[in-house]
Amino acid sequence: MSMNDVALEIAATAARLVVEEGLAFGPAKHRALKVLGLPGRTALPTNDVVESEVRDYIALFCADTQPAELRALRELARVWMLRLKEFRPHLGGAVWQGWATRLCDIDLALFCDDPKSAEIALINQDQRYEVQTVRGLHGDDVDVLSLHSFCEPLNEDVGVHLRIYDLDDLRGALLPDKQGRSPRGDLQALERLLAA
């Protein structure tokens, strides 16, 4: 097998794990190595290749269920964006890109004048959340407030992750990716997707 064939096989296996088990791309690629019995140092496919395989997998095996699941997640994201409107929420990740299934979480970026203000808003809304630190937009560490929100159409809790950014970070947040797509969208952009 050529290096390209191996990368595609890893991507296809990772895609199945993303869709069927809700794994993130990184862990799915590493698990795919184990599933395929490949050495840990094998070159991994890019996230773009995995995303393409995820879309193919959904088209083949989930075409009857995924559109409704995606809509339910986008509607729940809209609820949270309205709830946190003062923090200029932007939807990203699988729910924004359109390949989310019921196992995907909702990723929102909040752009705040004061980083603690979003936490105060959640406390005022009687929301329980956990705080963790992850790599942010510009490679800096950012706080993520993670909570669970019940999604009625899916009849289950969905993870909602709020990445807390400084207001100044909004400028670089909408730069297009390599394929010319915006990596996230504001409430108006989400409303257009829901109306389409």
Protein model, in words:
The chain has 196 residues and is an alpha+beta fold. Helix content is 44%, strand content 20%. It is built from 7 helices and 6 strands. Strands 3-4-5-2-1-6 form a 6-stranded mixed sheet. Strand 4 (141-151) and strand 5 form a beta hairpin. Helix 1 (3-21) crosses helix 3 (47-61) and helix 4 packs antiparallel against helix 7. It is globular.
User: Which sequence of SSEs, written as H and E, runs from N to C?
Assistant: HHHHEHEHEEEEH
Describe the oligomeric state of these chains in a short phrase.
Answer: single chain
Strand order in space, largest sheet: 3-4-5-2-1-6
Task: Determine the N-to-C terminus distance.
Answer: 43 Å
Strand content: 15-25%
The helicity comes to 40-55%
Overall geometry: globular
Count of distinct strands = 6
- The gyration radius over C-alpha positions equals 18 Å
The main β sheet shows up as: 6 strands, mixed
Secondary structural class: alpha+beta
Poorly predicted runs: none
Quickly count the helices.
7
Mean model confidence by pLDDT: 94
Provide keyphrases for this structure:
196 residues, alpha+beta, six-stranded mixed β-sheet, 7 helices
Element layout with pairings:
Elements: H1 3-21, H2 25-35, H3 47-61, H4 66-83, E1 90-92, H5 93-97, E2 106-112, H6 115-124, E3 130-135, E4 141-151, E5 156-166, E6 184-185, H7 187-195
Parallel strand pairs: 2-5
Antiparallel strand pairs: 1-2, 1-6, 3-4, 4-5
Helix pairs in contact: 1-2, 1-3, 4-7
